[in-house]
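> forwarded from #structure-qc
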């Protein structure tokens, strides 16, 4: 996988703005997934980065900036000899929620009116 930012230098439509407008990833099968960081958020999935840039590149006014230098091919990654030790507790990923604890949502109907 390769992570990237979509950086726009000129916004012809006036919708997305300029600067970093989306973040994304290119998977090892070349599929691309982007998530827009603009006022009108959405996501897009494309068969390859060329197709994505044909749609969103605006003739060179938008570019991909890669976040890290990791190759896209998982077969060239050096793997550890053994898996890491399991952490004592599950991480909260910096958002204060442990993904195995949804007890506060048990027995609640998401369609009920909020008090």
């Amino acid at each position: 996988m390769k992570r990237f930012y979509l950086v726009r230098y000129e916004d012809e439509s006036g919708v997305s703005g300029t600067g970093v407008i989306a973040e994304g990833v290119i998977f090892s099968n070349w599929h691309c997934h982007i998530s827009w960081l603009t006022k009108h958020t959405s996501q897009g999935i494309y068969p390859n980065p060329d197709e994505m840039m044909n749609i969103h590149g605006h003739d060179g006014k938008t570019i991909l900036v890669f976040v890290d230098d990791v190759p896209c091919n998982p077969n060239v990654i050096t793997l550890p000899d053994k898996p890491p030790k399991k952490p004592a507790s599950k991480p909260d990923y910096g958002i204060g929620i442990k993904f195995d604890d949804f007890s506060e949502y048990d027995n609640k109907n998401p369609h009920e009116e909020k008090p």
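QC bot note: The first strand starts at residue 2 and ends at 8. The CA atoms of residues 107 and 113 lie 14 Å apart.
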